[in-house]
Amino acid sequence: MSHVMGQYLGSKERFQVVSGGSEVTIQFQSDPDDSSFILSQGFLIHYREVEPNDTCPTLPQIDFGWISSSHSSPVRGSVLTYQCQPGYDISGSDIITCQWDLSWSSSPPTCVKVQQCPDPGEVVNGARSVRPEAGFAVGTVVRFSCNQGYQLEGPSQISCHGRDTGTPKWSDRSPKCVCESF
């Protein structure tokens, strides 16, 4: 059985019928007392087919990154995965979904330039001191020392340097503490 969306009577003009499906059936019943029926004018119907919108809004590309999609167009349930170029970290959700209400599950993320060097690691049979103590941001200096009976092989300190492209980099490799020979 069909769902009745509305009943329209008289000479009322410009009513609108909207359907959420792909088909609409419009039924007419003539009123023999209507003067237009007597003059054999019948019915005049104007209609326009509107393409259904079943996609989420298109999202822009992100600077210093790219988008991979599970579908060729952003339909309900499709998943966008964001990734950043080397030297950049993602800020925000890297996966967003086109929801049933045709909105995105979150805003697109951004790619932010990495401003830290990776942890250079601890030195076996020795110690390290980091200045400043929080993280390994560009400008950080790490000093190394060895336990008694061991000597440093390599630099006694390294520093984190920023680069125009790619991630920041240490000035040298971390040293090793090797057993002193007698």
Automatic annotation (TrEMBL):
PROSITE patterns to which the protein is assigned, alphabetical: SUSHI
CDD domains (UniProt xref): CCP
GO biological process: regulation of protein kinase C signaling; synapse maturation
One Pfam family here: Sushi
InterPro entries: SEZ6_CSMD_C4BPB_Regulators, Sushi/SCR/CCP_sf, Sushi_SCR_CCP_dom
Disulfide bonds: C84-C111, C117-C160
Annotated ranges, domain Sushi: 54-113, 115-179
Key words, A-Z: Disulfide bond, Repeat, Sushi
GO cellular component, one term: neuronal cell body
Protein name listed in UniProt: Seizure protein 6
Organism the protein comes from: Liparis tanakae (Tanaka's snailfish)
Gene for this chain: sez6_1
